[in-house]
Specification:
The protein contains six helices and nine strands. With 215 residues, the protein is α/β, with parallel strands linked by helices. The chain has a seven-stranded mixed beta sheet, with helices on both faces. Helix 1 runs parallel beside helix 6. One of its GO terms (cellular component) is cytosol. Keywords: Purine biosynthesis, Transferase.
């Protein structure tokens, strides 16, 4: 259950639940954006798989209800998947955002919520998985970047919504490159979430397109 009272009434399609496992820098950017009434999206809940996730403190400081669904509290993976679906469902979201959430979402979440998006620090389909920045450096690419995509049952395999390139500098190591990607990633995620909430996402096969305002 959420750790604080219900959020203010927000239309269902505008309600956003953010999933976090770590420090929550993407969450912080979304919370800053949602302070503008014209942004269109409102973060109404934050769910984590780790009780010590820094993103939870960011949410609580902003007055956003939180929930923790730790795998150790469940007998097996299917029961954890169902627990995640229930925890997210408490907030009645129109959009679920995986922002630094380090676990694959199972069928109970993906079947219950139509719009689940994720951000990844590489230009998919290149370098999926938990070490996208490290893998890009090891491969020797001169350009990498970040991707916002719809989530499916695979690992970073869902339809791509938006991408932004980041140059790899000769002096880059994993930490410096990742920090520069994060700056671009935050801005891209904020833009995609706001536009998705305001106007929607059209999916045609593997083509995911942010819709434009009518007229």
């Amino acid at each position: 259950m959420p750790s604080s009272p219900d959020s203010p009434v927000v239309p269902s399609q505008d309600r956003v639940v953010v999933l976090v496992s770590g420090g929550g820098s993407n969450l912080a950017a979304l919370l800053e954006a949602h302070r503008d009434p014209g942004y269109g999206a409102r973060v109404v809940g934050v769910v984590s798989d780790r009780v010590e996730a820094g993103g939870l403190e960011i949410a609580r400081a902003a007055g956003i209800p939180t929930a923790v669904v730790s795998p150790k509290d469940f007998d097996d993976r299917p029961s954890w998947d169902r627990g995640m679906a229930e925890a997210v469902g408490v907030f009645d979201p129109g959009l679920v955002v995986s922002a630094g959430f380090m676990r694959i979402l199972g069928a109970p979440v993906l079947e219950r919520f139509e719009r689940v998006i994720n951000t990844h620090p590489a230009l998919l389909p290149a370098f999926p998985g938990a070490h996208g920045v490290r893998d890009a450096l090891a491969y020797g690419v001169t350009v990498t970047g970040c991707t916002v995509h719809l989530v499916d049952a695979g690992v970073d395999t869902g339809p791509i919504i938006a991408q932004q390139a980041v140059e790899v500098l000769p002096e880059d190591d994993e930490a410096t490159l990742h920090e520069r990607i994060k700056v671009v990633e935050r801005a891209l995620l904020v833009d995609v979430v706001g536009r998705a909430a305001r106007h929607g996402i059209h999916l045609d096969g593997r083509r995911a397109q942010l819709l434009e305002p009518a007229g």
